[in-house]
Specification:
Elements: H1 3-20, H2 22-49, H3 56-60, E1 64-67, E2 76-80, E3 83-87, H4 95-105, E4 108-113, H5 119-122, H6 125-131, E5 133-140, H7 147-159, E6 162-166, E7 170-173, E8 177-181, E9 199-203, E10 206-210, H8 216-226, E11 234-236, H9 248-254, E12 258-261, H10 274-283, E13 286-289, H11 290-293, E14 296-299
Parallel strand pairs: 3-4, 4-5, 5-6, 10-11, 11-12, 12-13
Antiparallel strand pairs: 1-2, 1-14, 2-3, 7-8, 8-9, 9-10
Helix pairs in contact: 4-6, 6-7
């Protein structure tokens, strides 16, 4: 018998002794059970959310709203069961980072909605469309000459995304998330901020109102046009907390339990303004800010 044969035989004997050891056998069984459990979890997670990321939604099936910290801009992600809706995309410079974050929690978007065609709301849209599987891309029929706009439209066409241009009120439903675009299209705006889509989302028992950069004139128009539709649990505070938005009358009509301001740290606009913060405090709503807290996550509110 050669030395090599003796060595091989010795190794096989050692392996057999190792496997016969009760402690070793227990460890092997535990590892097998853990591996099977991880496999089952990953499969369930992927079928429910399209990702193997451990999410709160997977654990309890309640909706989550993520106000993504995109600096001086807006991006709001709603996820519920296996469905996802993204409103706005932040800035162009932060597009890749925003897209990466969205893909982590929603690699597939049922609806991607742009409130209005400003760079701090639509700048990162092309990156989102390039990174995430988007089924429907929704925006108003207003066209602008900015490159971020043309890049997003070209990317959507290239990816075969269904583009929906709105010139009237609309309602969409994913099965578990209801999206209502309120009827403000007759409003004669003089500033693109006041062309913002007014979006009301219902997911489970949670309701959310997003107004883009709508200012006081459009808010007043909404109060006269469809005040009843404004009532919501969560308000995405208009125009990053600018003093020209979120009037007290409008705030009372929305009657939010939670108000979230998305703005950049130490931004040059002074957002959020003391006027708006005073109004929110006076009303008594819970206030959150991305410039201080980073991404704000609200899970299962009202459920």
């Amino acid at each position: 018998m050669t030395e090599e044969t003796r060595s091989t035989k010795k190794k096989k004997t050692q392996v057999k002794k190792f496997l016969r050891n009760p402690k070793t056998l227990s460890i092997v069984i535990i590892l097998i059970i853990v591996s099977v459990a991880v496999g089952i979890y990953s499969y369930i997670s992927y079928t429910k959310t399209g990702t193997i990321t451990p999410t709160m939604e997977l654990l309890d099936g309640r909706p989550t709203v993520r106000f993504i910290d995109v600096g001086q801009g807006d991006a709001t992600l709603v996820t519920y069961k296996s469905e996802s809706v993204l409103i706005d995309a932040g800035t162009r410079i932060g597009g890749p980072e925003t897209a990466e974050y969205v893909s982590l929690y929603a690699p597939k978007l049922d609806y991607f909605i742009i409130t209005h065609q400003h760079g701090d709301h639509m700048g990162g849209a092309a990156d989102i469309l390039d990174t995430v599987d988007v089924e429907n891309f929704v925006l108003s029929d207003i066209t602008v000459g900015d490159k971020f706009y043309s890049d997003a439209i070209r990317k959507a066409y290239k990816k075969g995304v269904n583009i929906i241009y709105l010139d009237d009120a609309a309602e969409f439903n994913t099965g578990h998330i209801n999206i209502e675009i309120l009827d403000v299209f007759d409003f004669e705006y003089t500033d693109l901020n006041d062309s913002s889509l007014i979006i009301r989302i219902e997911a489970g028992m949670t309701t959310l109102l997003v107004t883009g950069d709508a200012e006081a004139p459009l808010e007043e128009y909404m109060l006269k046009k469809d005040k009843e539709s404004l009532d919501c649990d969560i308000l995405k505070v208009g125009h990053h907390g600018s003093s020209s938005s979120t009037t007290y009358r409008f705030l009372c009509a929305v009657s939010p339990d939670i108000s979230v301001i998305s703005c950049g740290r130490n931004n040059s606009y002074g957002h959020p303004t003391n006027q708006v913060l005073t109004r929110l405090e006076r009303y008594g709503t819970e206030i959150h800010r991305t410039d201080r807290e980073g991404t704000v996550v609200i899970h299962g509110w009202g459920n």
